[in-house]
Write a structure and sequence with these properties.
Elements (H helix, E strand, L loop, with lengths): L8 H20 L5 H8 L4 H7 L2 H10 L2 H9 L4 H14 L1 H12 L4 H4 L4 H13 L6 H25 L7 H13 L3
Length: 185
């Protein structure tokens, strides 16, 4: 940021700290300092305590800042296939969120400490249950869809290389994996 673009006022400062926290979590996991966050946000480090109380509360707030988008997206789904496709596509559209999640889980944070809810996953469970009440447990189906989606985005380079898929178009590989995933429904 340039000196003239420095965040001013409560809302701008909170937004800058939230954004810088998400960026640093992606690359460093929980191994970030208040000073790093503040420096990236171009604000004094003392404001973190004033606006968030602690680094842990800032991290929780930064992660929770993504909830409104997920709630809005979850409300748009009309069927399980649509929700499953979005689950798969969203991890590739915003892989940084998955990397943050992986870093925080690996650091030992409890799932409910990371985020109180997972609207997209909850919606997928409900839609699968409504459409396939006698099929396998809807929670297992939704979990498998998310596991495949998250695993693919985290390990795609490794999988593509070692499975010999590097000679294929990457988008085609993703489409085929998504088609296989949808068979779970």
């Amino acid at each position: 940021m340039t000196p003239t673009a420095r965040p001013r006022g409560r809302d701008q400062i909170r937004a800058a700290l939230t954004s810088s926290t998400l960026e640093l979590l992606e690359t460093h996991g929980l191994d970030i300092s208040i000073r790093q966050i503040a420096e990236r946000a171009d604000v004094p480090h003392s404001v973190i305590g004033r606006y968030f109380g602690s680094k842990d509360e800032l991290i929780r707030s930064a992660i929770d800042s993504t909830l409104p988008f997920d709630r809005e997206a979850a409300d748009r789904f009309e069927n399980a296939e649509e929700a499953a496709r979005e689950a798969f596509n969203s991890v590739f559209a915003r892989p940084e969120r998955i990397r943050i999640l992986a870093q925080l889980l690996q650091a030992g944070m409890a799932p409910r400490e990371i985020r109180a809810e997972a609207p997209l996953l909850a919606t997928l469970v409900k839609l699968v249950e409504a459409e396939q009440p006698t099929h396998a447990d809807p929670r297992i189906i939704a979990a498998a869809i998310y596991a495949l989606s998250v695993g693919m985005v985290l390990t795609e380079e490794y999988i593509v290389d070692h499975a010999g898929l590097d000679v294929l178009d990457r988008d085609d590989v993703r489409r085929q994996v998504q088609d296989l995933m949808l068979r779970l429904l």
